Amino acid sequence: MTRNLLAPLAAPQGALRIAARSLPTTGPWLSLVIPTFKERHNLEPLVEQLTQLLDRRLGGNYELIVVDDDSPDGTWELGLQLTRRYPALRVMRRQAESGLSSAVIRGWQVADGQILGVIDADLQHPPEILLQLLAKMQHGTDLALASRHVEGGGVSEWSLLRRTLSRGAQILGLVVLPEVVGRVSDPMSGYFLVRREAIAGPMLNPRGYKILLEVLGRGHIQHIAEVGYVFQERTVGESKVSWRHYLDYLQHLLRLRLHRRLPKRRLSLPLRRFCQFALVGFSGLLVDYSVFYLLFSQWGVGLTTSNVLSAEVAILNNFLWNDAWTFADLSQRQRGWQCRLQRWLKFNLICLAGLVLNTLIVNLLFNLFGVNAYLAKLVAIALVTLWNFGVNLKLNWRVTNVQK
Ligand SMILES: Nc1nc2c(ncn2[C@@H]2O[C@H](COP(=O)(O)OP(=O)(O)OP(=O)(O)O)[C@@H](O)[C@H]2O)c(=O)[nH]1
Ligand SMILES: [Mg+2]
């Protein structure tokens, strides 16, 4: 049994490195790390499900590595007991070090596999999705990612606040680090497989909660595949996510921003698409004014009601045109009225955020810099159009690096 207890590695000296594997090797093909902190009640069912799936798919050609931060509920001890029944299971108990990202990297450092992976221990990541991820890796992709934001993906019962925070974090990531965060639809995912050679060599920073950002930001990832999954609710144990993790995330983004040079073609704009988007925006302006005129001047509806209604009709106009024309190629891939409705709601939200931005810019230019009000409005419209276009492209009609 102690054969399966991995010695805790020395406390981190800053960044950590994953070694390239020496060939030929007799080790397993897949090494899946399961980071745990106080997951005693989830561990056994998870290991059982993974073992059943992987035995069938890979025979004995895999290992499961639990990296536990000396959980007070004795998760590591239970893990060690389980190694009797599950010979592919290995356990690392860490006492000198802690944190999710470093747990994953430490697990990969002692792993023998060619394919390295990570899955949460709390059963929020459905184990069966692993088979689809494996299939993608077997087809030669560098990174196979379980995503909540592609077809078949979603979250089960998240509150509006949680969804907003998650999307807000993604948008922030897109602003600070577009060439990294924008490569995948779900940069916050903690469920993925990556080819060892793609991350062996560069130093990985063990701080932070989002290990995928580190992999995308520092690794040599060319081909990416995504598989949709529904993020399950926890049934046992509790989340370790706290406000501190949001600050960590911001720090992580900035650290990666400093590490990477600014991409040369940072402002490469898909010009044709953008012109279409701008034209549609212009048509929306006409619709807005016409409906406003009808409601307010002809039918005597109140000012605010007329304004809100006309803006909403214009947003609907813009959405329909963009869906059918500007982003037609992308909406073709996500058919069905539910997907459409989702896009429409997101479009509304993005437009609303655009409106807030617009107001801020106009105020800033007019009140602070004394710019003429009409000129300030023109500048704001131009900037907000760019913002609306970029965010819709990345978040709503979504363009990523993922291989189909
Ligand atoms: N080793 C180790 N594992 C951790 C640590 N923090 C969290 N984990 C594990 O990482 C996985 C994800 O942590 P959660 O707290 O569930 O975070 P989440 O799934 O992103 O968010 P929730 O939806 O709120 O649960 C779980 O398996 C945790 O046990 C840590 O500091 N050290
Ligand atoms: Mg969780």
What's the helix and strand layout?
Layout: E1 5-6, E2 16-17, E3 30-36, H1 40-58, E4 62-68, H2 75-82, E5 89-93, H3 100-110, E6 115-118, H4 129-138, E7 143-147, E8 154-155, H5 160-176, H6 178-181, E9 192-195, H7 196-199, E10 203-204, H8 211-218, E11 224-228, E12 230-231, H9 243-259, H10 271-298, H11 303-326, H12 328-331, H13 337-368, H14 373-396
Parallel strand pairs: 1-5, 3-4, 3-6, 4-5, 7-11, 8-12
Antiparallel strand pairs: 2-10, 6-9, 7-9
Residues 120, 122, 124, 234, 239 line the site of magnesium ion.
- Counted up, domains total 2
Count every beta strand, where a strand is a DSSP E run of 2 or more residues: 12
- CATH-scheme architecture of the largest domain: Alpha-Beta Complex
**Which word captures the global form?**
elongated
| Small molecules bound | guanosine-5'-triphosphate, magnesium ion
Order of helices and strands: EEEHEHEHEHEEHHEHEHEEHHHHHH
CATH topology of the largest domain: Spore Coat Polysaccharide Biosynthesis Protein SpsA, Chain A
Question: What is the count of helical runs?
Answer: 14
Q: Please tell me the overall pLDDT.
A: 89
Q: How would a textbook summarize the main sheet?
A: 8 strands, mixed
Helicity, in percent?
Answer: 40-55%
Specify Rg, calculated over alpha carbons: 24 Å
